[in-house]
Specification:
The complex is a heterodimer of chains A (about 1000) and B (about 500). By secondary structure, chain A is mainly beta. Chain A has a 22-stranded antiparallel β-barrel. Chain A has a five-stranded mixed β-sheet with strand order 10-15-16-13-14. The two termini of chain A are about 60 Å apart. Chain B has 22 helices and 13 strands. Chain B has a two-stranded antiparallel sheet. In chain B, strands 3-4 form a two-stranded antiparallel ribbon. Chain B is mainly α and about 500 residues long. The chains are: A mainly beta (about 1000), B mainly alpha (about 500).
Chain lengths: ~1000, ~500
């Protein structure tokens, strides 16, 4: 019976509707208020339904509305203010003028476990958007970030395409424990070695979280700041967007100061110092080789192709991409090739359920040139040792060999060595995040996110038996390494709008990370034939090893955010973390933070400033975070294997352990002021202070402790304080012409405030640095070179007390006040846009950074390494006769590792210049299928200003040693959207 | 609501799964679980032996540096500056090679203490006499290894031992005999340091004593061994006694080795096979009846390459960093077969084309080369019978009432094995005895790491004069007797270590 009544009711309703409601149509034209031109492809939607249309090439639209008397049409178009109009049967025609949006669109910033509208958070977060990253002519996005955001130093230690840059946020917080920020890719922690696996074109934004309020919720490992990388999602609502990008270009040396002798100079030098016995100079004069040109390629090819498809609807949105990237390094034996695919999908499965995935898969083939160590065989190092009269090539252009005497130099021709000892690395990476979001009650969101990060990498190493340097015997090595990192994050979020004035957002969460890796390596030798150089072709194994590692983290966290009338904001967080890297006693630690923000601009008393002051915010935050970046098992006292003797397997203590080891803690405070003027100029000023306590350090201890010369311990304190300024302004902004400028400057001061066991100083052997309380962690400790005695050519130094001596003594070393960690860094840029043309330039710089140029110790060896090529300075500038005033002593007075080799490694680099042209959309409309097209040319690392005399000043190291220098890229690119 | 309950349950479950916070490596065990059986103790002893494979010890720095620092070799123009600071006497407390010698010796000591501490615990649980005997044997090896490591420490980092009274006032080394106790990091007296070595050797001698019915033909020969035995204990005891100027003990213990007849000198005159003498065979194959203990290498498990710096062979040419001093080459008589065993003239690959006798003594073990292409790799022969003869001869010359005829007999015995048609007697008197012994030690033990210590304990200096293509910076060095650098500086790392109360040496300044 009940059923019948219900059916009747339904029937009546339907009937009633058909009688009362009617269908009607609305048509009209939509133009832009800026230039009165029609807008193509503008979306019109009947609010609350899926009924919608879009404008044609002349801005015309037509929409039919069914079964209702009245409806609301929503007109939306990117870059314009969305408008709503009520329409009914009488409306018939509705012409709309769309007004461009103010520049301050509702940008979002990423915070831990969520996103927030820009300007509504108390924390310190900088955002870098896709357009700065997607066309960078390098393997990874990391290169593009140098000098872009205040407070973050991005430095490449190598020009090797596959190697990642080193990141540091707001100074160095720890002496030995990790100083790299925590990198989060779509909610999953990754390491910098993964950068080369991520296609920069897939990245939507990079957010840099700097202060306690924004990082503390990441608790574990957040002490060095957090870099959150978010990949693109489907955004194209009107149609499926297909974008194709390609880039073609080449690389060459970016800077490349070279000061070694040519043949004529070398011969003169040999004659002067009596190194000419047995030399046939008439013959040698015929050869003059610049080894820099031999080893470094000035036309190293670069190409990339990238295809992506994206679409968004209210049920599903997706972003699917595939790419290929291929770059030759500028050094011999350095290549990078990558294939990558990505699928990001979000599905609204039900009103209360959203599920999705971010998945990527990458395959890479990499060859890396050896650098950083001195060797006569590996080209980067050897190029500075080889003499100019040694020709690496035969007359026919083939590589000269020591087997037939066509190579006349020392040991082996580095080029021959390299081509006979290849190493190929392969990396396979799959990173998948699956998530589900449930909304069981209004305002309550439960979300669960599970990430799997799997890496398999292999190395295949060969030495060909035919190469004379291998003595007729080949060597083959294989290594295999697997790592899997599982991450699970569960959060519950409740948004509580108490009344229009008060709103509260509460989150509770839990996170677990479980990491395991294993690998092995096997090397065999005895191969006799170049064609058979696998490990199985060998006759004897010469080395074998395996490795295992694992660690886990478990965390619980909560956060509360409150705002009153969007005027006062406050947030609080509390998190507790456990790490398997510590013993039971020190395993758990609790971190907290609080942040407050006052949106001064919105105060009623500020009303009359509205015209010129468009933004004014003051924010403060205070909180703690932790660091556990130490080896996985060092808290355990362990006995290991491998101590074999005469074919018997032995065991041996391998670590002493320290069960008291616990988290390194960082307390940081931040004060930020954000100002906006005339809607055109934005100024951000931030001040911070950070105190590291319980610092994890590899403390040197006497070898008397069972032969263990170091041990991990929680010791000491360190402080970092600094100030950051960021300014961006649209100087001119008209419809056709926009000129904007931006600049940022950061200053950080580092100071060790306590070391260990009451010790106030410790010299770190072979680094020329010393840890001293009251000084920066990177300060050099050296003998001060005082030049040369003009009377006899002796080297002179200052004693500790400043007197001049000709005796080099350890006791005369002093803290020199110069640092290898740059206190100053920043960047600035400008962009000019006129019609479809855009010209942009970006500079980055670091200042007051010093580096020990170890290469010069060899080049100016003054008798230690005379058999190898030497600096021109040794020929022209060395002391030769009484009265000579110079800084190089007489020949034979060999150098010491003193301050003469300490150089100013500050630099200013024109990081990127790009000229692009976007084809007019009017023109493209005629093609019917191309909706956007852009062509560009760009140069990366175009020019470098520096006083440093090595090949390149960019490095984060204290010492400059046979380093792979940075490269300069020239590329042209094309970007088409269908 | 059901949803939420399910969700909470799931969450709790996930927490459990991920709460595995106790992570252990797969290829290591916790320290206190390692030695639970005599077999495990055996493996820990193997671990001690393997510590001697370190290239910082006998197969590298500990053997080469003291002789490079002395007057034995010259750096060649164009050399790679390897060990250049040591050769030029430009040795700083931050020298990384010296630091690694120091560290490697304490590593040996740590491994010994680890075994000894654990063996003491293990022994209380053992009931089987055979097991106890085996464990005693292992402890004996550990005591010996510890004594050997301490003897090298006092040799390199302390002044020479003049008398018990003086030694009580002199600085020794930091002594540690316990693995699980944090040591007091303070240098003991030189006397106490030597006393520990003697005590350890006493214990080792008892524990390693051969059974009374030991018969080499049945139980295996003692010579050419890669493991420690009762006789390695006596060999070290004799060496230590000589360095302590305790000549009676030196005679006593060297006699035990010599008179045992378990070892015989390898003749440089008699042919082993194919024109190769027994003595040459000892250097080219590391096998000999006069070896008391050598560090054993296999083709897959080996230490450093002693010969590299004397050849730097790249399969096409030689570019030696160091070549023998002319005065050493001139010392050998034309009938001395050691010369052709140790030296062979080659033209180097340098542009100056120096032709010079290179040290083929360290050309390397030919078996290791053919098996695994290990170039210039020899097993360090840490104790040889010839050294025992030299110890005894020197002791006879220095005892309260010198016995030159017995000294002469020992020297003659050695020379007969080395020199073609040696007459059979050596005239030794108070005037020439020490010169003969010094000369013989140079000729016999060349580049085996004895020279610097010998000069130190004899209070002699030396002078280098340039020779053909020798590096000018260092070729005209004059070193006075008792110069501070005869005693290596205590590594800076040790002086600055927290909790360390270590007095520096004069050479630290």
């Amino acid at each position: 019976m009940k059923k019948k009544v219900f059916l009747l009711f339904v029937f009546l309703c339907v009937a009633l509707q058909t009688i009362c409601a009617q269908n009607f149509t609305v048509r009209g034209t939509v133009i832009s208020g800026e230039d009165n031109e029609p807008l193509l492809g503008l979306g019109i939607l009947q609010e609350g339904t899926h009924n919608g249309t879009s404008t044609d090439i002349d801005g015309n639209y037509f929409i039919e509305i069914r079964n209702t008397d009245e409806a609301t049409l929503v007109f939306s178009y990117m870059g314009f203010v969305t408008q709503r109009f009520k329409v009914n049967a009488a409306t018939k025609k509705l012409d709309v003028v769309m007004n461009p949006e103010a520049v301050e669109v509702d940008e979002v910033v990423v915070v831990a476990y969520g996103v927030r509208k820009k300007g509504t958070i108390a924390g310190s977060v900088s955002t870098v958007k896709a357009e700065k990253i997607e066309s960078v002519p390098t393997v990874g996005f990391d290169q593009a970030l140098q000098g872009l955001t205040s407070g973050m130093t991005v430095i490449s230690n190598s020009g090797e395409p596959s190697k990642p840059a080193v990141f540091q946020i707001r100074g160095m917080n720890s002496i030995n424990s990790g100083t790299s920020p925590l990198f989060i890719l779509d909610g999953v922690p990754i390491t910098s070695s993964d950068f080369n696996a991520i296609n920069p074109g897939d990245i939507e934004s990079i957010n840099v979280l700097k202060d306690a309020s924004s990082t503390s919720i990441y608790g574990a490992r957040a002490a060095n700041g957090v870099v959150v990388i978010t990949t693109k999602r489907g955004t194209s609502t009107d149609k499926v967007d297909i974008t194709f990008r390609t880039q073609q270009g080449y690389s060459e040396l970016a800077h490349g100061t070279w000061n070694l002798m040519n043949t004529e100079e070398r011969i003169r030098f040999e004659q002067e110092v009596g190194f000419d016995k047995g030399q046939d100079y008439d013959l040698l004069r015929k050869t003059d080789v610049n080894w820099l040109d031999v080893v470094f390629n000035d036309r190293a090819r670069l190409q990339s192709y990238d295809l992506s498809v994206n679409y968004a609807s209210d049920k599903i949105n997706y972003f699917v991409s595939g790419g290929y990237f291929d770059q030759e390094g500028i050094a011999q034996g350095s290549t990078f090739e990558r294939y990558n695919m990505r699928a990001n999908v979000d599905v609204r499965a039900a009103d209360w359920l959203k599920v999705g995935t971010n998945s990527m898969i990458t395959y890479e083939e990499v060859q890396q040139a050896d650098d950083g160590e001195y060797s006569l065989s590996t080209p980067i190092s050897a190029c500075r040792f080889m003499l100019p009269y040694w020709n690496p090539y035969r007359e026919d252009g083939s590589i000269a060999s020591s087997s037939d005497g066509s190579w006349t130099g020392t040991t082996h021709n580095p080029l021959e060595w390299m081509s006979n000892n290849p190493v190929v690395n392969k990396k396979y990476k799959a990173l998948t995040v699956l998530y589900a979001e449930i909304t069981p009650l209004e305002n309550l969101t439960l979300s669960s996110r599970f990430g799997v990060d799997y890496t398999h990498s292999t190395a295949d190493m060969k030495s060909y038996p035919s190469f004379v340097g291998n003595g007729g015997i080949g060597v083959a090595g294989r290594s295999s390494y697997n790592a899997v990192n599982l991450t699970i994050t569960n959060t519950a979020n409740y948004l509580w709008k108490i009344n229009p004035s008060h709103s509260l957002n509460i989150m509770l969460g839990q996170e677990g990370v479980d990491y395991r890796s294993e690998g092995f390596q096997l090397i065999t030798r005895g191969q006799k034939n170049d064609a058979f150089t696998s490990i199985s072709a060998g006759t004897i194994p010469t080395a074998w090893s395996n490795s295992h590692s694992s660690h886990s983290f478990l965390s619980f966290f909560s956060r509360g955010e409150y705002n009153y009338k969007e005027l006062y904001y406050a947030d609080f967080s509390l998190r507790t973390d456990a790490s398997s890297r510590f013993g039971k006693d020190g395993r758990w630690a609790t971190f907290w933070s609080m942040g407050f923000m006052w949106n001064v601009r919105k105060e009623s008393f500020m009303k009359n400033t509205a015209k010129w002051l468009t933004n004014a915010q003051v924010a403060v935050s205070l909180g703690t975070s932790g660091n556990s970046s130490i080896p996985d098992y060092d808290h355990l006292a362990l006995v290991g294997s491998g101590a074999n003797y005469m074919g018997s397997a032995g065991i041996v203590p391998i670590s002493e352990g320290n069960e008291n080891l616990g988290w390194e803690q960082l307390l940081s405070g931040n004060l930020a002021i954000h100002l906006g003027f005339f809607n055109r100029v934005n100024l951000d000023v931030e001040l911070y202070k950070k105190i590291t306590t319980n610092m994890l350090m590899l403390v040197p201890q006497s070898y008397v402790n069972n032969g263990f010369g170091t041990r991990w311990d929680n010791v000491g304190e360190m402080e970092n304080s600094g100030v950051e300024l960021a300014l961006n302004a649209d100087v001119i902004r008209t419809k056709d012409f926009v000129w904007s400028v931006n600049a940022n400057v950061s200053y950080n001061k580092n100071e060790i405030t306590e070391l260990y066991n009451g010790l106030n100083e410790y010299e770190i052997s072979n680094t020329s640095t010393k840890l001293v309380v009251g000084h920066s962690v990177g300060e050099f400790y050296l003998n001060r070179y005082a030049g040369v005695n003009p009377a006899n050519g002796d080297a002179l130094w200052y004693t500790k007390d400043g007197e001049i001596t000709n005796v080099y003594s350890e006791a005369d070393k002093v803290m020199i006040g110069k640092d290898y960690i740059a206190p100053w860094q920043g960047g600035f840029g400008t962009s000019l846009a006129w019609k479809g043309f855009t010209l942009s330039a970006h500079f980055s710089w670091v200042a007051d950074r010093w580096m020990f140029n170890n290469d010069r110790f060899f080049e100016e060896s003054n008798g230690l390494y005379t058999a190898y090529n030497q600096s021109k300075r040794l020929l022209y500038d060395r002391w030769k006769q009484p009265g000579d005033v110079t800084d190089i002593p007489r020949y034979g007075v060999t150098p010491q590792m003193d301050s003469r080799f300490l150089e100013d490694a500050s630099f200013l680099r024109l990081k990127n210049v790009m000229l692009s042209y976007s084809l007019p959309e009017q023109l493209l409309k005629r093609t019917k299928f191309v909706s956007r097209a852009k062509v560009y040319v760009q140069a990366q690392n175009l020019y470098t200003w520096t006083k440093f005399t090595g090949l390149d000043p960019e490095s984060s190291s204290n010492v400059y040693k046979a380093q792979y220098p940075m490269s300069r890229q020239f590329t042209c690119g094309l970007e088409i959207t269908f | 609501m059901k949803q939420i309950k399910k969700y909470i349950l799931l969450l709790a479950m996930l927490c459990c799964v991920t709460s595995c916070l106790d992570k252990y490596p797969e290829d290591a065990v916790l320290e206190h679980e390692a030695i639970t059986s005599v077999d495990a103790a055996d493996q820990a002893v193997i671990g001690i032996y393997s510590a001697f494979l370190s290239p910082a010890l006998y197969s590298g720095y500990l053997t080469l540096l003291p002789d490079i620092q002395s007057d034995f070799v010259y750096a060649v123009n164009g050399y790679s500056n390897v060990y250049g600071n040591v050769w030029r006497w430009d040795i700083l407390a931050t020298n990384s090679e010296i630091e690694s010698v120091y560290g490697a010796l304490y590593d040996v000591i740590g491994r010994c203490n680890f075994l000894l501490d654990n063996a003491a615990t293990l022994k209380t649980k053992l009931t089987d006499d055979n097991e106890i005997d085996r464990l005693d044997q292992y402890c004996g090896e550990a005591y010996f290894a510890r004594a050997l490591a301490y003897s090298e420490l006092v040799k390199m980092f302390c002044k020479s031992y003049e008398s018990d009274e003086e030694a009580k006032e002199e600085l020794g080394v930091v002594l540690t005999t316990r693995y699980y106790e944090k040591p007091l990091i303070k240098r003991a007296s030189l006397y106490d340091s030597y006393q520990l070595i003697i005590d350890d050797l006493e214990r080792a001698g008892e524990l390693l004593a051969l059974s009374e019915d030991y018969d080499p033909s049945l139980d295996g020969a003692l010579y050419n061994s890669t493991y420690f035995s009762e006789y390695t204990v006596y060999a070290l005891r004799a060496r230590v006694a000589l360095y302590m100027k305790d000549y009676d003990s030196a005679i006593e213990y060297s006699s035990k080795v010599i008179d045992s007849d378990y070892f015989t000198l390898s003749s440089a005159v008699a042919e082993y096979s194919g024109g190769v003498s027994y003595y040459q065979y000892m250097w080219s194959s590391d096998n000999s009846t006069e070896v008391i203990w050598k560090v054993g290498f296999t083709s897959t498990n080996y230490g450093g390459a002693l010969g590299t710096v004397f050849f730097n062979y790249d399969y096409s040419s030689f570019k030696p960093d160091y070549v023998p001093a002319k005065w050493v080459l001139d010392l050998y008589s034309s009938y001395d077969m050691r010369y052709s065993t140790f030296f062979q003239e080659y033209t180097t690959g340098y542009t100056h084309g120096l032709s010079w006798p290179l040290l083929i003594k360290y050309w390397g073990n030919t078996d290791l080369y053919s098996a695994a292409q290990l170039l210039n790799t020899s097993m360090p022969k840490v104790f040889r019978l010839s050294e025992q003869y030299l110890i005894r001869a020197e002791a006879y010359c220095n005892i309260a009432s010198p016995n030159y005829s017995k000294a002469s007999k020992d020297i003659s015995k050695l020379r007969t094995a080395r020199i073609y048609n040696y007459g059979g007697s050596t005239a030794m008197t108070a005037d020439n005895a020490m010169d003969i012994i010094e000369e013989e030690r140079v000729k016999e033990l060349y580049m085996e790491g004895f020279r610097l210590t010998d000069l130190k304990r004899w209070h002699k200096g030396f002078e280098r004069t340039p020779q053909s293509q020798s590096l000018s910076n260092g070729s005209s060095l004059k070193v006075e007797a008792d110069a501070p650098l005869f005693v290596w500086p205590i590594p800076q790392h040790e002086l600055e270590s927290p909790g360390a109360d270590i007095e520096p040496n004069e050479s630290n300044k």
